[in-house]
Design goal:
By secondary structure, this protein is an alpha/beta fold. It contains seven helices and 15 strands. A hairpin with a 2-residue loop joins strand 13 and strand 14.
């Protein structure tokens, strides 16, 4: 598993690295570690290859919480654990779906407890996420956060809980990335996440806050998929 450590204190980086290796020896996990001394450097050229990010909140040139918010725009599935001097950041961390907090000075028992939780989350998320290239940036999306896909000319727009992402693709290719049975077409332009369907009324389906047209050709197939998915 790939672990990113975003921390400006060399002594803490060394401590974290040793704890992660010790945890791997005790549990049988194998880890590749990537270290960054600054959050901005971490985000520049970010690619969704990490399973867990260990993020310091207070760094000289960047605030870890702000970096985490930007990270969530690029990667909705990576597991996030904060390293901090201040426990009160825990409440704000819910907004970026942080899975754990380790308070400095670091102690192995506390670290192992939180690290196990974020690893469990990482393993679960890896099975329900997809990676795309949107605006020349690699982005990882959590399938559960996708409301629907829309094709416009030769582009596919992913409408998600965290915003819209446009990629150069066909709807047929995009459909192959998604879990079978979880999505269905309501017409030739839209591929709908059935778990986000709020209402079907006449020739319209409400998905999240959007109302989409159901074509006559697709209605029977769409309703059958919806009934099966409920």
């Amino acid at each position: 598993m790939n672990i990113a450590i975003v921390e400006d204190e060399e002594s803490v980086v060394k401590q974290l690295s040793e704890m992660i290796r010790r945890y791997g020896e005790e549990t049988g996990y194998s880890f590749a570690l990537f270290t960054f001394s600054d959050g901005i450097d971490f985000l520049n050229g970010y690619r969704s290859v990490y399973d867990v990010v260990c993020m310091d909140i207070e760094m000289p040139h960047s605030n870890g919480m702000k970096i985490a918010h930007k990270l969530r725009q690029l990667d909705q599935s990576v597991s996030l654990m904060f390293i901090t001097n201040l426990a009160q950041y825990a409440i704000e961390g819910y907004s970026v779906s942080a899975g754990g907090y380790v308070v400095k000075p670091l102690r192995y028992e506390a670290f192992a407890f939180h690290f196990e939780r974020v690893l469990t989350s990482a393993l679960r998320n890896s099975k329900k996420s997809i990676s795309i290239v949107a605006d020349k940036v690699h982005v990882r999306l959590n399938v559960d956060d996708i409301f629907y896909l829309e094709v416009v000319n030769h582009a596919v727009i992913y409408h998600t809980a965290r915003g819209n992402y446009e990629t150069w693709d066909s709807l047929a290719n995009a459909e192959k990335l998604l879990p079978q049975g979880a999505f269905a077409r309501c017409n030739h332009c839209f591929l709908v996440n059935l778990h986000h369907v709020r209402e079907v009324k006449g020739e319209t389906v409400t998905v999240g806050n959007a109302e989409l047209k159901i074509s006559r050709m697709k209605k029977k197939e769409f309703m059958a998929a919806l009934a099966e998915g409920i």
